[in-house]
Backbone:
C-alpha cells in the first residue's frame, strides 16, 4: 500500500487484523508446514498478541537507495545472509507516555540480492525484545503496489509484526535484525513471545 492513511476505519481495520490472526493460529495448529513441532501442536492454543493499537499503524516516508549497499545479516544458526538495503523508512511515533521521547524514527527495509518481487523485509528489535517479544527480534513485510520512489508514503503497521519461525523450532534459520534496526523505544504491538 503506498497511499497515506488519512481515513482509517478503525473498526474494520481491527476486524481484518483479528481475522488475519485467527487464520495464522489455524495455520500454526494444523498445517504440515507449521513451525510448531508436530508433537507440540495438540497443546498449541494460539499465538500471543498485544492488543490491536491503531497508534502503531504509521505512515512512513520512503527514501530509495539507487545503489543499495549489501548488508550481511547474522542468522540464528551462525551463518550470514546477504541482503540489500534498498529503502529507508522514516516516520513519527507519537505516544502519550512520559518515558518516551516523541520523534522521528528510521528503519531500513531490505531485499535479497537476486531480483524478485518479494516484499520489503523489515527486521527490527525494540525495548520489548527478549522480554515480551522474541529475543531474536521480530519481522515485518511490506508489499508496495509498485516500485517505491523517494518521497512515497507507505503504511507501516507494527500490529502485523511477527515472530520468526526459528523461535518455535531450531530446524529454521532466521536472519537477525542488524544494529541499524535496533529501536530505542518499546513497540508493544504485534506478536508477543514468552521464552520458556
Residues:
Amino acid at each position: 500500500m503506498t497511499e497515506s492513511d488519512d481515513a482509517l476505519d478503525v473498526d474494520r481495520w481491527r476486524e481484518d487484523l483479528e481475522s488475519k490472526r485467527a487464520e495464522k493460529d489455524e495455520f500454526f495448529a494444523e498445517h504440515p508446514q507449521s513451525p510448531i513441532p508436530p508433537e507440540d501442536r495438540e497443546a498449541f492454543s494460539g499465538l500471543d498478541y498485544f492488543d490491536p493499537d491503531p497508534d502503531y499503524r504509521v505512515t512512513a516516508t520512503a527514501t530509495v537507495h539507487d545503489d543499495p549497499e549489501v548488508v550481511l545479516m547474522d542468522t540464528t544458526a551462525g551463518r550470514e545472509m546477504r541482503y540489500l538495503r534498498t529503502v529507508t523508512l522514516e516516520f513519527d511515533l507519537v505516544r502519550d507516555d512520559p518515558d518516551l521521547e516523541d520523534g522521528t524514527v528510521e528503519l531500513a527495509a531490505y531485499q535479497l540480492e537476486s531480483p524478485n518481487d518479494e516484499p520489503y523485509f523489515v527486521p527490527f528489535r525494540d525495548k520489548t525484545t527478549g522480554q515480551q517479544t522474541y529475543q531474536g527480534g521480530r519481522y515485518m513485510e511490506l508489499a508496495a503496489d509498485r516500485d517505491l520512489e523517494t518521497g512515497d508514503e507507505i503504511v507501516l503497521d507494527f500490529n502485523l509484526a511477527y515472530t520468526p519461525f526459528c523461535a518455535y523450532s531450531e530446524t529454521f534459520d532466521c536472519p537477525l535484525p542488524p544494529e541499524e534496526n535496533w529501536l530505542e523505544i518499546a513497540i508493544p504491538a504485534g506478536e508477543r513471545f514468552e521464552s520458556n
The first helix runs from residue 10 to 30.
